[in-house]
From TrEMBL:
Entry protein name: Zinc ribbon domain-containing protein
TM annotation in the entry: 124-148
Keywords, sorted A to Z: Membrane, Transmembrane, Transmembrane helix
Domain of life: Bacteria
This protein's record includes keyword Transmembrane: yes
Amino acid sequence: MLYCTKCQTVCEDSTRTCPNCKRSRGLRPVKDNDEVFFMKVSEGEATEISALFESLAIRHRTEQVKAGFSTSVFDSEFVPTDRNIYVEYRDLPRANETLAQEKEDPAPAEEDDMPKGKRMVIQTVSILAFMVIVMLVVFASDFLATLLRELFMK
Ligand SMILES: [Zn+2]
């Protein structure tokens, strides 16, 4: 694999110019400790991913996206708080795997921890409670209407 020192991406050995920035002068064989542009994320995601990589000892670095300079053609839109994540080449496969797993199996929402039966009971109870309230309102207004009618009939 080749490494483009201009935009910090890797590409196939067969290419003469970097497919990302279209330059040829920055290309050289990639080294294990080269920082490869990994992805651009929002500030919050950067913190999360950084912590995740930290826990797995994936060598990485995050950097504020510079205004007027986009490292990639993947995405030219950015907000100033966005961060670029760079991962060392030797840890890149692990970084990719980690993120792929994260996407496949996102942290379950709290609601999903509840057993299905229990959730159904709660739903049924809340539906019944709602019906009781509706009936009470109907009876109460009916009672009031009767009361008023009796008052005026007299
Ligand atoms: Zn490039």
